Amino acid sequence: MRFDKRFGLLLFAAALWLWIGYSIYSHSAKHIIKATIIQSKTPVRDIDSKVVPAKKEELWIDRLYFPVGNELRHPTYGYLGYKRDFVVYFDSEVESKKDQNVTFAVYSDDGFRMFVDGKRVGEYPKDRPYSRTLVNTYLPKGKHHIRIKYFQGYGQLGIKVKFKTDKNSFKLFGTDGDTLKFVER
Amino acid sequence: MARFEKKSIIYIIALLFIGYFTYFQNYSYPPKQFWDENYHIASAQKYIDRVMYMEPHPPLGKMLIALGEAILNPNSHIDKSSFDKTDYIKRFPKGMSYAGYRLFPTLFAWLNVVLFFLILKEFTKSDILAFFGSFLYLFDNAIIVHSRAAMLESIQLFFIFAAIYWFVKKYPDRKSVKDYLILGVLSGFALAVKANSAILFLLFVIWVVKDIFTFGFTKEKIVQALGYFAGAAAIFLAVFYLHFALGQKVVDNRYYAASKEYKEILKRGETANIKNFFTMFKDNLKYMQNYQKGVPRLNLCKKGENGSLFIGWPLGIKAISYRWEKHGSQVQYIYLQGNPVTWMIGLIAVILSVVLVVAVLVFRLPVRDRRTFEYIAAFTFIYISYMIAVGQIPRVMYLYHYFIPLTISYILAVLLFYYLFGDMLNTMIVKASMLFIAAAIVFAWWFFSPFTYYKPLNTEEFNKRIWFDYWRLHAVR
Questions:
Q1: Domain carrying residue B438
Q2: A contacts of B445 (beta carbons < 8 Å)
Q3: Is B465 contained in some domain?
């Protein structure tokens, strides 16, 4: 049986609409993680450096992943225009379905500090090339607020956070696990 | 026949009606300059005030920009004498209207849709296909945004489309000297707007090759060729003559590259005297050449570089922020950003055309429609030639330098459609597909229209439109 090429045309038309739909959907971030980016007028050399705000911006993202590069970039938004001397606060609400231990793997260039319900649980406070720090914490059943403060001094930058519960494999921060869900706001 | 033409007229009226809203409506907004208007308005005003000047582009586009201002005269209460003392207006007078300067570029852009329809109609003999094919031009955000300004490209495209229409209309026939002369005249008009219209010379070459293969070589061909060059040269030189005749005064000792002889001519007030023409013409050409040498090269490492490599243009690399204005969390933008659906269709058409031509010429694939195939081969050749030619230019180039091959890629898209589905246009599936594709074009135009019509967006709304990082769209924060 020969393929009727008219259906190829119809498929092309459908593909165009799928592409449009996918492009808009994939660039519309769900309100999972609030990223507050503060550009500093003064050099930021470690996590405790004093930040003199030159510009502040809030963005919603659905996964904590900014690839390594020379400029802050998010898969949803593209290049964001930040290259050096800035900090970012990532705030999110998670719901732990049970009492459990959770391991966070924070890959960053430069450093970070992590809080759960306002309590510091892990950090790498100085500058560094893109490297991993594991943070182990205990999350009782219920809702929790997780804040990650990240800083970039100069040169290359990037941050990616993953998490794992029990014996499950690591998942990207922002995507739901079996027993740890992110609350959409 | 009469009924057939009447049907075409209805489609043309429908296109003009839609085109009014996409191209023409509220064209003087924003009442703020952007991109090269600082240059072109300064040049145009000099024609109105009869001031002599020299410029890198041929004069016709700026003459028409001036004509719009002279006809509408919306700035009679404003002192524009400072425009004559500079080639780049840094500060425009408060309350200045752009309705006059932008009139002809916008009007030509609007009328282009009729020419585009007529070209497609000549190819396909189908009103419905030509109508929906015209959507590729009608809803292209990049061409729209660039055309609603005192710039040259829409005027250039008008003459290019006119030349292509004439080329297609006469392509299969035995041509007369007059036919070649008309092609030369239309090419001359396009060349008198921008030098990159020289690509139209290939239309002449293709005609000659076609004629020789179809009717054999005759001595008449030499006369026809002379007719073509005479037509092009007559228009090009006549436009320059008008340019010299209008440039009678010198302001602030601004002689540009005028030689001693030219200065004498200006002093004697004899710029309109034909016997002085070549002295002035020579000086102008010299100035144009030197100016091009002074234009910087593309520097992709430079912060805020607006230029781009020709190889990335078919993908839309890179968008240019022409203007923005921030109001709280909302920002209005004028962005040179194409309609991704039409650009994608154009790119696919070019790739498929190359595949088809190679398959026929190299692998002897049988041709199912000789006439359409010849058009596909001809326009693929023009597209590739243009891209190779601009690849040799060392100066910085911008995304809008892709408008000529872009519109050719649109022509290729319709030709391919006709080549593949021409005998099935009346079937339900093809009609429905055509409607779906047209609807996708309109939707994408609407979605990206805030960049085209200076509508406000917040950061999240802006970011939804960054479908590809390589477009380099940047939200103002």
A1: 310-471
A2: none
A3: yes
pLDDT in tens, B77-136: 999 999 999 999 999 999 999 999 999 999 999 999 999 999 999 999 999 999 999 999
CB < 8 Å to B440, chain A: 13, 16-17, 20
Cβ–Cβ of B469/A73 closer than 8 Å? yes
Fold of the domain spanning A31-182: Jelly Rolls (2.60.120)
Indicate the pTM of the whole model: 0.86
What is the number of structural domains in chain B?
A: 1
Contact A7/B at CB under 8 A: yes
Nearest CB neighbour to B436, from listed A17, A57, A60: A17
Q: Which site among B421, B429, B458 would you substitute to test the A interface, given the most A Cβ atoms closer than 10 Å to its Cβ?
A: B429
Residue range A32-50, pLDDT digits in tens:
999 999 999 999 999 999 9
Cβ-contact B106, B154 below 8 angstroms:
yes
pLDDT tens readout for residues A8-26? 999 999 999 999 999 999 8
Please list every residue in chain B whose beta carbon sits closer than 8 Å to the beta carbon of residue A9. Answer: 420-421, 429-430, 433
**Mutation target among A7, A27, A59 for the B interface, most CBs of B within 10 A:** A27
- Residues A134, A136, A137: CA angle, nearest 5 degrees: 150
Any idea where the domains of chain A sit in the sequence?
Answer: 31-182
What does each C-alpha distance from A16 to B150, B196, B423 come to in angstroms?
A: 34, 33, 23
What is the predicted ipTM? 0.90
B380 domain-assigned: yes
